[in-house]
Specification:
The chain has about 180 residues and is α+β, with helices and mostly antiparallel strands. It contains 2 helices and 13 strands, in the order ββββββαββββββαβ. It has a 4-stranded antiparallel beta sheet with strand order 11-12-7-13, with helices on one face. Strands 1-6-5 form a 3-stranded antiparallel beta sheet, with helices on one face. A 3-stranded antiparallel beta sheet has the order 2-3-4, with helices on one face.
């Protein structure tokens, strides 16, 4: 039996939630999102709480119950507070800048990398080596951050590359004589 799925999801007064025909939708100050809920479960919306309940008792053992609850919780948190990730560029001459809807990266290659910014993600560069991504959609935010990081992953000897803000790079010892 899932311990996560039994918990309720708290919602603020400024968030409007609805569940109709197997679709859950939430609208808040940052945007609007919807999700198709697994037909084994139903969403019960009360004044300031949302519950995900299985239709049949045998589905309480199904791990998708906790997954559905987490997805709905992420939607509610996204439209109310939003999510953010910070990437850090480590390396000599590594720079990032935003121009229009393009992120321009200089990562030690012979050419610059132009990454198109998705419409739901906002990117800003407070410093040349810091890239801050914000969005109300956690899935698109994580995919965008992972794609930017994949252009130059951190290497274990000098630590050069693009890393997440809270990421620790295990360092290896270099060659010995």
């Amino acid at each position: 039996m899932s311990r996560i799925a039994k918990n309720s999801i708290k919602i603020d007064n400024d968030i409007k939630c609805s569940f109709q025909n197997g679709n859950f939708s939430a609208k808040g100050k940052l945007g609007e999102m919807s999700l198709t809920v697994n037909p084994l479960y139903t969403v019960d919306i009360q004044e300031n709480e949302v519950f995900v309940k299985p239709i049949d008792d045998k589905d309480k053992q199904n791990p998708n119950w906790g997954t559905m609850r987490s997805l709905i919780s992420n939607i509610i948190a996204g439209v109310s507070k939003g999510f953010s990730k910070t990437l850090e560029l480590n390396g000599t001459g590594y720079r990032a800048s935003v121009s229009g809807n393009t992120l321009k990266l200089q990562l030690g290659f012979s050419h610059d990398i132009d990454h198109l910014i998705p419409k739901d993600v906002k990117i800003e560069c407070p410093k040349q080596n810091i890239v801050k991504l914000t969005s109300f959609n956690k899935e698109i935010l994580g995919a965008t951050a992972a794609k930017i990081r994949s252009y130059r992953k951190p290497e274990p000897f000098k630590g050069k590359g693009i890393k997440y803000d809270n990421e620790f790079i295990f360092r290896k010892e270099g060659k010995k004589k």
